[in-house]
Structures are given as C-alpha cells and as structure tokens.
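[step 3/7] fold_predict: job queued, chain A
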Amino acid sequence: MKLAFYITNNHAEDVAYFYYNTINQQQVLYNGSTTMMAASTIKVPLVMGWTNLIAEGTVNEETALYYSESLYEASMKDLYYFYPENSYVPLTFLMEHAIVYSDNTAANILLVNYTSYACETFREWFVSFSDEIVPESFYSRNQMNASMMLNVMKTLYDDSLKYADIIENMKNALPNDYFKGNEYDFEVAHKYGNYDIYRHDMGIFYTFEPFLACVFTQNIEEIASQVIADISKIMVEYNIVHLYE
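[step 4/7] structure written:
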C-alpha cells in the first residue's frame, strides 16, 4: 500500500483513477480530465459499440468481417493462430478475442469496419461519453480520460443485460495481474491496457455493494502493475469499511 501512496504523492500528474459505488452512487474521481493514451482499455467501448449494432439489428452475431494482412498486429493468443490473413472472421469471435486476449488484430478489424455499419465513426460515438468539450485529437487518436471512461463503465454496468457477454469476457481476462493481482473472494471483471509508458486497468468489483473502478498510469511502467493492484485494494477496503459506517 505504501507504494501506491508514494506514487500518487510523487507522480500526481501521472495517475488518474475513479471509484464509483453502484448502490449509493458515491463517486471519487482523481485527475478525471487528464488525457492519456487509452491503450487496450479502448476495446471495451469498441465492443460495446458493436454490441449496440447487434441489438439494433444492423448486424448479427455471425456477420463476418474481412481480415486483411495489413490489420495484423501481434498480441497474446492473437488471430494468426485461428484464421488466415485475407479471410472473413465472425463478429462474435472478434469481440470475444478483443476482450479476453486483448487481441490487437481483432480490435483493428472491428475498428476499421465500424463505419461500414454505423452512422458515425467509432471515435465520434466514444467521445459522446464525455461531459466536457474534448480536444480535437480525441477524434483521431487513441486518447481518453478517467471521466470519460467512468461514463463508459456506468453504461456497461447499468445495461449489464445487453452487455452481458462483454462483462463475462472481462471476468475471464488476465486472471493474475493488475486488478486481479490480489486474491479476492468475489469476482472482478476487468480490461487492462499496456502500451509504451502507459499501464491501465478498469473494471467492476462484485463486492456486496459492487463498485466500478479504474487506475490509469503513465511514466511509471516498471512498477505500474503493483501500483494498480495496490490502489484497487485500497478501494476494496474502503468499499467494505463503508458498509459499517
């Protein structure tokens, strides 16, 4: 825990987080407007967008999207082992792999095909989760802030029936690191991000009073995983103590 406090005290501009109790709506937001690269956390709203298109009937679960070789990007258990380049891949396979295995190729396919089915670009839809006017760069780069992602996670949780597959896949993602770096007797659904100087996680903690959380970091990559685990544990302890206040 000391490590987490040291980081937030000495790298105050390099950490952003939120805590949101889904029962009493208590919210803590730190550096909510600080802009960072989203890394793979962007895959949650990306798959949510495709889930909306399925719900609207624009596409269905078996809709196949073209996998061109230009979209390949190496990642853990990536698409290379399942489908050949220049083939068509079922939508639900891409959505699952983007979340469970953080498959970059799957996410690239979902991203470039989004405007073929939606009435706006993915980034235009994603930016709608902001309560503020965002910089122009948000429309063209993989950027986010904690405030925006809090609204994403509220939507995910509040409409958990629609997004049930996403949440289930988040429960199965990366079982021993970041938010899951601590052992808990309750479920955690999360999506981490890891790119260059950025290390993030965001998710749902299914405590007695479930809460939403994120910890976004930059410039502390060597110790970020432990910092994220420490801060999330502080949030869990705070959540439990609240029950006895």
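[step 5/7] annotate
Residues 44 and 99 are 7 Å apart (CA to CA).
The mean pLDDT is 91.
exit 0
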